[in-house]
Amino acid sequence: MSVSHTRSEDALRAAQLYYLQDLNMDAVAREMNLSRSSVSRLISYARESGLVQITVTSPQEAMGDVAHRIADAYGLVAHIVPTPPRATEAERLERTALSAARILAVMADSNTVIGIAWGATVSAVGRQLPTKTLHNVHVVQMNGAANTHSSGVAYAGAQLERFGQAFGAEIHHFSVPALFDDPLTKQAMWRERSVRSILDIQRNVNLFVFGVGSPAADVPSHVYAGEYVTAADLRSVVRDGVVGDCATRFFRADGSSDGIALNERSSGPEFTMVRQIPHRLCVVSSMSKLDALRGALNAGLVTELVVEESVARALAEPRR
Asked: In this model, does residue 4 exceed pLDDT 90?
């Protein structure tokens, strides 16, 4: 690797930490094990060479080898979030969410319909969203959040509110169960005018924000830990080879979702509809969700990926 290439990589990392992660010069210097003056020169170089304009440029335009490999393999834009080696899971989530929030704020525009799939990752993104004055923006919940113990309104509703407040948007709740007891009940509900009105808004989404759920995550995804699935459901997850879910619609490692029993009862959008959404921003910070992320990518659900650095490196490695 040439000296100039190494310098560009270091400059990009320093710029991401400084501009996207809000670290000061001293903190960047500690994380990169450099002097403060070296960091200052790297950030100056990043500005002068075009890596940084008003904000850090898109990794599609100035991304490293890892991001190139991910982009080439899956046909998407990869935004890699640098984190220190000893960062905790919570720290990795907050850093990744902060970068995702900044990227999302740039992507969001007036006359946009934003769909969100509730979850811990999307909640973290919402907490970091800057305020941006937009017009005629709608935020719609993409999957139900009710279960036998809760309506889900407080949990999912708080996430909708954060997005709505950030963009001055009108919000639309989807007040149905996350997973129905009976597929026939779902079919009947989908004929109700009040439900169809939300489904119509979902079909007009042009920016979808989501994380991936995983039954194998170190910190169990909310759908698996929040009394949404029964012991019998978990057995069917194993039997059907499920590695993850997007908006409580489940998929296998190869991206397939046909024949998965839980999907017949899911309130989440079908993947054929998801793939028609122009911008699909997926945010992942945990290595324990690597298999779930690969499944989502194989399903073609992602156009923009915001991913923590160690997860990105593992994702870019060729499978054996």
From this structure: no
Spatial distance between the Cα atoms of 243 and 297, rounded to a whole number of angstroms: 12
> Going by CATH, does the domain composed of 1-57 fall within 3.40.630.30?
no
Which two structure tokens, joined as six digits, stand for 259? Answer: 């024949």
Model pTM score: 0.81
Closest of 7, 105, 80 to residue 49, by C-alpha: 7
Q: Which two tokens stand for residue 62?
A: 């100035």
* β-sheet bridge partners, residue 251: 244
DSSP 217-283: -SS--HHHHTT-S-HHHHHHHHHTTEEEEETTEEEETTS--TT-GGGGTB-SPPHHHHTTSSEEEEE
Look-up: residue for tokens 């320093």?
14
Give the ranges where the chain is alpha helix by DSSP (H).
3-15, 25-32, 36-48, 59-62, 65-74, 89-107, 120-128, 153-167, 183-189, 193-203, 222-225, 231-239, 271-274, 290-298, 309-316
Taking only the tens place, the pLDDT of each residue in 132-172 is 999 999 999 999 988 777 766 678 889 999 999 999 999 99
Do the domains 59-316 and 1-57 match in fold?
Answer: no
Q: Using CA atoms, how far apart are residues 40 and 82, in angstroms rounded to an integer?
A: 18
Contacts of 171 (CB under 8 A, 6+ apart): 138, 139, 140, 141, 160, 161, 163, 164
Residue 60 binned pLDDT confidence (cut-offs 50, 70, 90): very low
Q: Which residue has the tokens 């002097």?
A: 35
pLDDT of residue 288: 94
Architecture of the domain made up of 59-316: 3-Layer(aba) Sandwich (3.40)
Q: Tell me the pLDDT band of 48, cut-offs 50, 70 and 90.
A: confident
Sequence ranges of the domains in the chain: 1-57, 59-316
Kindly state the tokens that stand for 255. Answer: 């991206």
For residues 256 and 297, the answer to whether their CB atoms sit within 8 Å is: no
- Give residues with Cβ within 8 angstroms of 176, minimum separation 6: 144, 146, 189, 195, 267
